[in-house]
Design goal:
It is globular, with a radius of gyration of 21 Å. It contains 19 helices and four strands. The longest helix is centred in the C-terminal third of the chain and has 38 residues. It is mainly α. It has a two-stranded antiparallel sheet. A two-stranded antiparallel ribbon has the order 3-4. It has one domain: Amino acid/polyamine transporter I (Up-down Bundle), CATH 1.20.1740. Helix 2 crosses helix 12 and helix 6 packs antiparallel against helix 14. InterPro entries: Na/Ala_symport. Keywords: Cell membrane, Membrane, Symport, Transmembrane, Transmembrane helix, Transport. One of its GO terms (molecular function) is amino acid:sodium symporter activity.
Length: 476
């Protein structure tokens, strides 16, 4: 089964998917007039609360929830596994994917906010499934079969991905780091704690999730970044060598770390892009689901705020992790050849643990707390994504059963899920990305025109003219 899943994973994340993903990122970068240059202004807007905006949660709350879902194990273990499987060059391609992915995050969020709806309880609903249905609806209200297919495919694949990426994988990461650091604590106990901690938040809905993420994300990301900077300072003599090795391995087949890790450009590109998407979700279509619930005056405002998430997750956190790992492996070549022998989730976690263990006394606790808080916040964020997709497919009555299954899977993940679920998550991410990428490409011309008006012509505080419609299950 593992061999079959690995084969499928290599196919869906093969050259065609890489070309589609990177091609979309680059195309939308130029289509939006290199929207990345608005990043400083977008960061400033992300901490500004707009009481007059229409939505359920603050813009920062939506960003924090999306970041909670993205700054997870992919930012630590995902970077380590990409390094081991694709070589140091994978770090470069992960960062490039994140840089160009900022434009895709902007466009997909713009579409989600523009085509969002309210349910009968007054709650905002948005995402690629609503974009497909509303953007291509005929004047008489009917929707072409292909648009319906795109909507259903995205929602269905997203639900599957949330179970793996959002629940099982993250719970397994928490359990693995806790039980390896404190062997006296059994995995079952960790699983039960996860169940209680997750259930206490997600059953309260998006407002409950956003409140937790608003304070948890800045604290956990700041503490982890500080730990990374300390290690980089300790490895300062070889930091330049680490940067050079990353750049060299991105374009050559050079072996690294005494020949223990070697890979060509294609492998570096493949694993870098795969982990880049896993870490920032640009093109995946998940972050726009929660962005659609934000209080905002127009789609461009929230799209700018949301695109900063790709910068923070990949442009900062993943880059820091990559530099820490590569410089540590150069500075301490004795760090287990057994770690380098098998690129897997377990060895990736072991590599990250070895790097942070270089900080006396505080290193391991920082990593343990960082991994646990990152993974926990990811569980919370992805639960909302699945919540909205279930509501789209089955109506409000499907939400509670989904939440129960989601929490249960987290428990089972904590007591024994590893590389198989990680591989399934990779496959699910690719399959849900395809309908999302297609729809944003189809709408990119319209979004580019409206972006010129709102962003480049200075109308970001303008109220969007189109009202948010209210729908019931029969209209979804």
């Amino acid at each position: 089964m593992t061999d079959i899943l690995t084969t499928i994973d290599s196919i869906v994340w093969g050259p065609a998917m890489i070309a589609l993903l990177l091609g979309t990122h680059v195309y939308l970068t130029f289509r939006t007039g290199f929207i990345q240059r608005k990043l400083p202004a977008a960061i400033r807007r992300s901490v500004h609360r707009d009481p007059d905006g229409k939505g359920d949660i603050s813009s920062f709350g939506a960003l924090a929830t999306a970041l909670a879902a993205t700054i997870g194990t992919g930012s630590i273990v995902g970077v380590a596994t990409a390094l081991l499987a694709g070589g140091p060059g994978a770090i470069f391609w992960m960062w490039i994917a994140g840089l160009f992915g900022i434009a895709t995050k902007y466009v997909e969020t713009y579409a989600a906010v523009k085509y969002r709806v309210r349910d009968r309880r007054g709650q905002m609903m948005g995402g690629a499934m609503f974009v497909w249905k509303r953007a291509f609806a005929r004047p008489d209200g009917t929707v072409p079969w292909w648009a319906t297919l795109g909507a259903v495919a995205f929602a269905a694949f997203a639900i599957i991905a949330t179970i793996g990426t959002g629940s099982a994988v993250q719970a397994a990461a928490i359990s693995g780091i806790v039980t390896s650091s404190i062997p006296a604590i059994p995995a079952v106990a960790v699983g039960l704690v996860i169940v209680v901690a997750v259930a206490a938040v997600i059953f309260g809905g998006v407002n409950s999730i956003a409140r937790v993420c608003e304070w948890l994300v800045p604290v956990m990301a700041g503490a982890y970044a500080l730990g990374c900077l300390v290690i980089m300072a300790m490895n300062a003599p070889v930091l330049g060598q680490a940067v050079g090795l990353i750049l060299e391995c991105a374009f050559t087949a050079k072996a690294a770390f005494g020949g223990a890790v070697g890979s060509g450009m294609i492998m570096a590109l493949q694993f870098g892009c795969a982990r880049g998407l896993f870490s920032n979700e640009s093109g995946l279509g998940t972050a726009p689901i929660v962005a659609a619930a934000a209080k905002t005056r127009n789609p461009a405002d929230q799209a700018l705020i949301s695109m900063t998430g790709a910068f923070w997750s990949t442009g900062v956190i993943c880059l820091l992790t990559g530099l820490v790992l590569v410089s540590t492996m150069i500075a301490h070549p004795e760090i287990g050849q057994e770690i380098l022998a098998d690129p897997s989730v377990a060895t990736g976690a072991a590599l990250a643990s070895a790097a942070f263990a270089e900080i006396p006394v505080f290193g391991t606790p920082i990593l343990v707390l960082g991994m646990c808080s990152f993974a926990y916040s990811t569980i919370l964020g992805w639960s909302y994504y699945g919540n909205r997709c279930v509501a789209y497919l089955f109506g409000p009555k499907g939400i509670k059963p989904y939440q129960i299954v989601y929490v249960a899977v987290a428990f089972f993940g904590a007591i024994g899920v590893g590389d198989v679920v990680w591989t399934i998550s990779d496959i699910g991410n690719a399959l849900m990305a395809i309908p999302n990428i297609i729809v944003v490409l189809l709408l990119s011309g319209m979004i580019a025109r409206e972006t010129r008006h709102f962003v480049y012509e200075g109308h970001l505080d303008e109220e969007y003219a189109e009202p948010v419609p209210v729908v019931d299950k029969a209209q979804l």
